[in-house]
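Case study 2.
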Amino acid sequence: MSRWEIRLPYEGLPTSSLVCRTDAPLFDRPVTLFEEVRENHGRKRVVSLGKGQWVRTAKTDSLLELPIKVRPQTGRWVLEIENGDNAPIALRDFAVYHPAVHLLFKTGDTASLDFYYGNRKAVPPSYDLALVAAQLMRANRAVATLGNEEALETAGTGPRPIGGKPGVVFWAVLIVVVLGLLVLISRLLPGAPEP
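Prediction:
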């Protein structure tokens, strides 16, 4: 088995395929692309990004184009090629492709337009764009360019609980209320009868 480690400039890049070439003339090899994702408790989990069978004959190209089926989470991938009893093949010209995304929208004022991204929990919008699609496609277009990326301090964190740990304040207040109710009930109960 041959393994190649592929390092990307960023983690979690949306990608559509991995491409590479070889000069080896004839072969038929299973190919697997995966990444190791560290879970919350520290263990690593292997996530398959794509699999395929790379066949090279006299009539086929030397190109491997491996579709990536899931969005990667890390910036380190491993490409495995099962050689069997054959000699390993040398690879060259690695490239990773990403889907081209276009934003088409209508706005009145572009002076203070902000673009936010990265919240994996955000739900995609659900608009009736089919009703205005023809109008949007006919409108005059202006090319927008992105400025420098600015990292927000609270990006993706959501509301922070009071007291640092989730639920600590809630349980403290609940204990005080229960103790107060027990004291109140004990005072309302009649005392023990005297003999």
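The first helix runs from residue 133 to 138.
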